[in-house]
Write a structure and sequence with these properties.
By secondary structure, the protein is α/β, with parallel strands linked by helices. 35% of the residues lie in helices and 19% in strands. The protein folds into 3 domains: 14-114; 119-138 and 146-174, no CATH class; 181-249, no CATH class. The chain has helices spanning 22-33, 55-63, 101-114, 119-128, 130-136, 140-151, 164-174, 198-206, 218-221; strands at 14-18, 37-39, 47-50, 67-70, 83-87, 90-94, 181-187, 209-212, 229-232, 243-249. Helix 9 (218-221) links the parallel strand 8 and strand 9 (229-232). The longest helix has 14 residues, at 101-114.
Length: 252
């Protein structure tokens, strides 16, 4: 991972913007959408966008400790601006580390076509029902598994469904207790993550721990939840533990 993706809350905060023309206008519109207060180079701010990619301007700002984005100059950037899919409050940011803005744009267009317009309504509804969901599943692990099941493909609150937000109260009412433990054995088709089946990719995204043969490549293990335990082993465990555990092995 070449950089750490973050979402900055800029409402009311100063952001330096330098340069003029179409690129600067586009960056100004983006900053205004985020609620930033746009200031000049000589003002105090934590971040800056050098819209004309001027090396001298970027150097001056970086010398002051300001984090800089310089348009079309990835070598001068402390951060890059992603392509954005906006389903507020859901935001999807797509970055290439400055390698290709065109690729990021093409991916954004694909996601725009895939994601329902009401995805943000589902997020807002989930936020509004946090207390009820916590009361239904006081245990954090059980709560996460229940939400994962509801949001899974074909689930009652599948985020790719246009009526997921409306179905949320019924989902909470009808949802049965999720099994405390599950152990799934899977033999991979290959060591290439592009060969993962949809089921395997989904389970990797849900698992609490991933037991795996030492030869399973990191590119596969990277598809698991970021906080999932990854445990190399010569054979499947006798006691995999609570929650969802996977065993991954390579084809023989």
């Amino acid at each position: 991972m070449h950089s750490l993706p973050v979402f900055l809350t800029l409402k009311g905060r100063p952001v330096i913007l330098t340069g003029a023309g179409e690129a600067a206008d586009a960056k100004r519109r983006l900053l205004e959408r985020a609620g930033a207060r746009i200031v000049a180079e000589e003002d105090e701010a934590a971040i800056a966008i050098v819209a004309d990619g001027d090396e001298a301007t970027a150097a001056r700002l970086r010398a002051r400790g300001v984090l800089v984005n310089a348009t079309d100059r990835p070598d001068l950037c402390d951060f890059t601006l992603p392509a954005i899919v906006d389903r507020a409050p859901v935001l999807i940011a797509i970055g290439t580390g400055g390698a290709s803005a065109g690729l990021a744009k093409a991916l954004r267009q694909r996601f725009e076509a895939l994601l329902p317009q009401r995805l943000g309504a589902l997020a807002t509804a989930l936020y509004g029902m946090r207390s009820a969901i916590r009361a239904r599943w006081p245990d954090a692990a059980a709560r996460r598994r229940a939400i994962d099941a509801g949001l899974s493909p074909g689930g009652m609150i599948d985020p790719f469904s246009d009526n997921a937000a409306d179905a949320l109260p019924l989902w909470l009412e009808r949802q049965h207790d999720i099994a405390a433990s599950r152990f799934v054995r899977m033999r991979l088709l290959s060591g290439d993550p592009d060969d993962l089946t949809l089921r395997t990719a989904r389970l990797l995204g849900e698992a609490d721990r991933v037991y795996h043969h030492p030869a399973v490549p990191p590119a596969i293990l990277d598809r698991a939840r970021a906080d999932a335990a990854r445990i190399p082993a010569a054979a499947p465990p006798a006691d995999p533990g609570e929650g969802l555990s996977l065993w991954l092995d390579l084809p023989r």
